[in-house]
Every structure is written in structure tokens, then in C-alpha cells.
Automatic annotation (TrEMBL):
<feature type="domain" description="Endoribonuclease L-PSP/chorismate mutase-like">
    <location>
        <begin position="5"/>
        <end position="140"/>
    </location>
</feature>
<dbReference type="Pfam" id="PF14588">
    <property type="entry name" value="YjgF_endoribonc"/>
</dbReference>
<dbReference type="InterPro" id="IPR035959">
    <property type="entry name" value="RutC-like_sf"/>
</dbReference>
<protein>
    <submittedName>
        <fullName>RidA family protein</fullName>
    </submittedName>
</protein>
<dbReference type="InterPro" id="IPR013813">
    <property type="entry name" value="Endoribo_LPSP/chorism_mut-like"/>
</dbReference>
Length: 151
């Protein structure tokens, strides 16, 4: 059970982040759940803002990607229950990047490594790590996930 694994890891999923625009945190289509892009909110605010490579280090951004992934898992949990997840299918990570910064893959590893720790082999996934100029609210990272659930 994933909830038991999270407890063993000392991880408590946060409350679902309140959408900042006209969307829902996650939707179910058949045996898949797709999350909206999740920012690294902690208690309703962003712990850092700015571009990775200027305002935020790559290492700090990797931690923020991990936080955003926990927010994505919270959205999945609220919709279908985390214990119904059977596999992580896809991760898309957006990194607000300073000119010349090309370490997006290492930043998005914050998401990928966490999912591997939680789900083991079922956490291996397809992935995109995309550098962008701006993200909502000045966030350095945004993470989306797609998971398979038990039918």
C-alpha cells in the first residue's frame, strides 16, 4: 500500500493546492488520472520565486520539484485515493530558466527520484523536462503527472 510506504518514509501528503485559475487539480479518464500543473506550494505560498540559474539554485529547484510532486500526488489522492495508483506513466516538468541554464533534467529529477522512492519499479515513467521563460506566480518549477489506477 502506497499510504503505508509514505508513512514509513515520514511523508504526509499536503492538502490539495487551491487552483489559481479556472481548472481542477486532477481528472480521471478511464484508468488514468491526469493532474494539472502543480506548483511547489507549502501552506498556500511559494517558498521561492524566480528563475533557476539566477534567483534559485538548481539544487533548490530540485527540492521544489519534489514539493510540487507531493502536491500532484495529493491531487491524485483526493480524487481516487493514493492506494489505487498502480503505475506512474508520465511526468512533465517545467523549469523557469535563466538564459543559458540547461540543467532542466537535473531539476526534474526531484520529481522522478521521489516517485521512484515511493512507487519502486512502478514509479519508472516517461518524462519531459522543459525550460520556459516564466511560470505562474513566478514559480521556479511546475510539475504534472499522469498515473494509472486500478480499474
Amino acid at each position: 500500500m502506497i499510504s503505508k510506504k509514505l508513512a514509513e518514509m515520514g511523508i504526509e501528503l499536503p492538502s490539495v493546492a487551491t487552483p489559481v485559475a479556472a481548472y481542477v487539480p486532477a481528472v480521471q479518464v478511464g484508468n488514468q488520472v491526469w493532474t494539472s500543473g502543480q506548483l511547489p506550494f507549502v501552506d498556500g505560498s511559494l517558498p521561492a520565486t524566480g528563475k533557476v540559474g539566477w534567483d534559485v539554485t538548481a539544487e533548490a529547484a530540485e527540492d521544489l520539484a519534489r514539493t510540487a510532486t507531493l502536491n500532484a500526488l495529493a491531487a491524485v489522492d483526493a480524487l481516487v485515493g493514493i492506494d489505487n495508483v498502480t503505475r506512474v506513466l508520465k511526468v512533465t516538468g517545467f523549469v523557469a530558466s535563466a538564459e543559458g541554464f540547461n540543467g532542466q533534467p537535473s531539476v526534474v529529477n526531484g520529481a522522478s527520484n521521489l516517485l521512484g522512492e515511493i512507487f519502486g519499479d512502478a514509479g519508472q515513467h516517461a518524462r519531459s523536462a522543459v525550460g520556459v521563460y516564466e511560470l505562474p506566480l513566478g514559480s521556479p518549477v511546475e510539475i504534472e503527472i499522469v498515473v494509472e489506477i486500478a480499474s
